[in-house]
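Renewal narrative, Specific Aim 1. Our central claim is that a sequence can be written position by position from structural information alone. The example that follows is taken directly from our test logs and has not been curated for this report. It begins with the structure tokens describing the chain, in the order in which they were read.
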């Protein structure tokens, strides 16, 4: 029987393991931490009973993918829940904007800018199923839907600062800027529109759902289905070298590129080791979990309905903050992403006390304490917020990396999203999952299609391994 070892039990490692096991491969997953899940762990971090997602909290690209269509996780406890508003962007004075599932409803809320919003996201949301089928694969491939992908590409290639000129109001520009900031790139850099266009379109097509009971439900469902296919998972096992693995036929590494180089050692060709060593990581995330009595008192009332709230002020303010972070300087007013998963999933709350998830974009490896700056940004748009905080749990960039070694310097997206790396991650290659050693593959978020709990990097890597095995 063909055997495989998967190092790392994040959603990509588990997806790779499940894809292999479903084809009859005997699979063993080894996880260094005491619990499985990587970026999909959920715990009571503040007060008993409040469920906090430790990293990935919203899953717009996980609902309808080749992997999700191949494996039905609903029978193993995974249930998606949607907030009424997908994401919101508050502005000073109680103003703001909201992205609804409907393009038309979103456009209607943007007044004169509605037509321009519709022109960007209308066609894309209608065709997003076919478009996503292409961009969830490695960039260097023959597209199945070339004309649709080309239209998506034309809107994705410009800098976010240029795309934002389509809108004149602070509300519409802010709504786009908040979702574009997920790229953690300066708004003036090439292709910095891409992630904003993709996530904005996904919000209209699929919404930004959460997993009932926390993102850990994703890992639980994957592990359960893996066991059904005969796969096993061992926690508390740290792998330092391929020599520790008893020569399985396939090795899947759900690790950062630098860690892959260390694990493989001298068996990796020098040119590949050199390319992976040069892999660039992005800015860090400084994360604070709050237990809040009575929810966040946003002045912009529709923000209270949103699963995600982008807190950064005007487009120009966000552009300045992201530029500062890119230069290695901590901005006075950082971009803050606030997660209100309880809006869609009330089971995470306890009585009137709710869990609130927040992280600020900070320089990579930032050693300071960004708690005050992060809280000040929320307080700015929700006066009285601090008075409602019952408890906090703070995780610095260093602690983010300690919690999950793939988050180098606090980089929760496992790699800088600059133009070259978006196309050639983790290195220029027709098959970016291969590592130059027969049977050994990289399957982490450093490989296409990148960050998210969709499992597609693991699925793609496993399919690559199976194809080569068959050859």
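The sequence written for that structure reads:
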């Amino acid at each position: 029987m063909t055997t495989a070892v998967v190092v790392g039990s994040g959603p990509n490692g588990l997806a790779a393991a499940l894809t292999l096991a479903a084809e009859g491969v005997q699979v063993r997953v080894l996880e260094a931490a005491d619990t499985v899940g990587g970026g999909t762990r959920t715990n009571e971090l503040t007060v008993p009973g409040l469920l906090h997602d430790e990293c990935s909290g919203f899953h717009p690209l996980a609902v309808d993918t080749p992997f999700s269509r191949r494996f039905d996780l609903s029978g193993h406890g995974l249930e998606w829940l949607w907030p009424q508003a997908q994401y919101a962007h508050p502005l000073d004075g109680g103003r703001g904007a909201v992205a609804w599932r409907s393009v038309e409803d979103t456009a209607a809320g943007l007044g004169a800018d509605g037509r321009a919003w519709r022109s960007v996201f209308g066609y894309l949301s209608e065709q997003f199923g076919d478009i996503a089928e292409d961009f969830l694969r490695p960039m260097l491939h023959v597209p199945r839907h070339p004309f649709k992908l080309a239209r998506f590409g034309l809107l994705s290639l410009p800098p976010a600062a240029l795309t934002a000129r389509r809108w004149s109001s602070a509300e519409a520009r802010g709504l786009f800027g908040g979702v574009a900031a997920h790229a953690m790139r300066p708004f003036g850099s090439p292709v910095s529109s891409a992630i904003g266009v993709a996530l904005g379109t996904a919000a209209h097509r699929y919404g930004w759902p959460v997993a009932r009971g926390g993102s850990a439900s994703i890992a639980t469902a994957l592990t359960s289905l893996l066991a059904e296919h005969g796969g096993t998972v061992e926690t508390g096992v740290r792998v330092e070298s391929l020599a520790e693995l008893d020569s399985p036929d396939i090795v899947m590494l759900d690790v950062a590129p630098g860690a892959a180089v260390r694990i493989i050692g001298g068996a990796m060709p020098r040119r590949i080791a050199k390319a992976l060593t040069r892999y660039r990581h992005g800015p860090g995330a400084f994360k604070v979990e709050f237990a809040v009595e009575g929810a966040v008192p946003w002045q912009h009332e529709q923000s209270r309905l949103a699963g995600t709230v982008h807190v950064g002020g005007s487009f120009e303010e966000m552009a300045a903050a992201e530029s500062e972070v890119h230069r290695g300087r901590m901005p006075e007013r950082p971009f803050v992403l606030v997660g209100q998963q309880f809006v869609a999933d009330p089971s995470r709350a306890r009585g009137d006390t709710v869990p609130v998830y927040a992280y600020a974009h900070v320089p990579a490896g930032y050693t300071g304490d960004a708690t005050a700056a992060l809280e000040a940004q929320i307080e700015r748009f929700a006066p009285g917020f601090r008075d409602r905080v019952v408890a906090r749990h703070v995780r610095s960039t260093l602690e983010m990396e300690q919690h999950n070694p793939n988050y180098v310097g606090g980089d929760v997206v496992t790699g800088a999203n600059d133009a070259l790396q978006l196309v050639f991650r983790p290195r220029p290659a027709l098959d970016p999952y291969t590592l130059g050693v027969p049977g050994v593959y990289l399957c982490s978020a450093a490989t296409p299609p990148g960050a998210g709990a969709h499992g597609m990097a693991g699925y793609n890597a496993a399919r690559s391994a199976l194809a080569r095995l068959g050859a």
